[in-house]
Structures are given as C-alpha cells and as structure tokens.
Design a protein that fits this description.
Number of helices: 9
Order of helices and strands: HHEEHEEHHHHHHEE
Structural class: alpha+beta
Strand content: 5-15%
Shape: globular
Length: 199
C-alpha cells in the first residue's frame, strides 16, 4: 500500500513517537515514497512486492545471494534485522518499520551530536541512516533530498546548507552545544535566540 503524507504522519506519531514526525516523514518520502512494500536490493534492482509474503521471499533470496536489502516505508536495511530482533515479515509492517527506523535514527543522532550540532547533526544522522557514515550522504545527495522533501512538505522553509558544501558555514563544534539533550531531535529553522527542539 502506498501511504499519503497524512497517513505516514499519523503512523510516525503512533509508532515512532521518540522522533519528531518533521524528521521521520521526509525520510520516509525520500526512501520509499510511502510504499510499505518497497524493496531496494543494494547494488541491485529496486522492486515492489505484491504482498508481504512475496516481499519476504524476494528479500530472503537476495540476502542468501549476499546482498543487503532495504525494506518497507523507511527502507530499513536487512543488516539491522537480527540486531533489532525482527523477522523479514515484521520489517514490512509499517508500524514496526517506523519503530526500527526510529531506533536507527536515535542511535545515529547519538553519534552525530559528538561531531555536529543543530541542523548539521540532523544532516549527519540522515547521512548515517543512508550510508553508515557521517558524511557520505552529503556527497551522494541523499541528505539534500531529505531536506528538499521536508521543504516541499512545509516542515522547513528552505533546506539548510549541507555541512562541508561550499555554501555551508563551518559546522559548530560539538563542544559548543547549547543544552541540546541527546534524547531530543532538532528540526526546523535556527532563529536568533534558540534552536527549536522537539521531543
């Protein structure tokens, strides 16, 4: 089923309340377009399953052939399934998929805030989600696509500069953080007095 943005937002609020919907929904739109049966075989084709059973069979076949596979709404990578304690079938469930994505994003944010602050930390978290590194997602355009999706949905007015790009100011060192709690997710525009923080 392909979910509209309003449905993805409701699912995110229900299934991944630890992460702001303003952060999760643009990621889902970028990853799958809201398709809970989307499958991406890394270094292989992007396919759509007809059903969860069909999808699970495809995923298992490609995993057995040595591929990693991205599954469902948030395109959770199969390398995470065992660590997160889910089966292939469970990973297709929209609520479970968003819960898994939330777990991965929170862990990524915990690492990103050791090196970046504010919106740069969110950008680095998106990079980690996509590539497993803090910066490769900047270079491959993924982070920019997520921010563009957020801008297109009205979550932010304009996409922020990508850290390390010619248009980006130098990232603020993590030691200069101003009270951003690790459990918080920073989204939105930075104004002159504070960073907007959503729990």
């Amino acid at each position: 089923m392909i979910h509209a943005i309003a449905a993805i937002t409701m699912l995110a609020q229900q299934c991944a309340p630890e992460i702001a919907t303003e952060a999760v929904v643009p990621l889902v739109v970028t990853e799958s377009g809201g398709d809970d049966l989307a499958i991406n075989i890394n270094k292989g084709p992007r396919v759509r399953a007809a059903s969860i059973a069909d999808g699970a069979a495809l995923v298992r076949r490609y995993m057995a052939a040595g591929y990693t596979v991205d599954v469902g709404l948030a395109q959770v990578n199969s390398a995470n399934f065992a660590r997160l304690g889910v089966t292939v079938e469970q990973a297709f469930d929209p609520c479970t998929n968003l819960r898994l994505a939330s777990s991965i994003l929170r862990a990524g944010y915990g690492l990103a805030i050791q090196h970046y602050t504010g919106l740069d930390a969110i950008s680095a978290t998106y990079s980690l989600y996509n590539t497993g590194t803090l910066t490769r997602g900047f270079r491959n355009g993924y982070v920019g696509r997520v921010w563009s999706a957020a801008s297109g949905m009205g979550t932010i007015q304009t996409p922020p500069p990508i850290p390390g790009s010619a248009s980006a100011p130098t990232a603020t060192p993590a030691s200069a953080k101003q009270g951003i709690a690790e459990a918080s997710w920073v989204v939105g525009q930075i104004d002159s007095s504070a960073v907007q923080v959503f729990k």
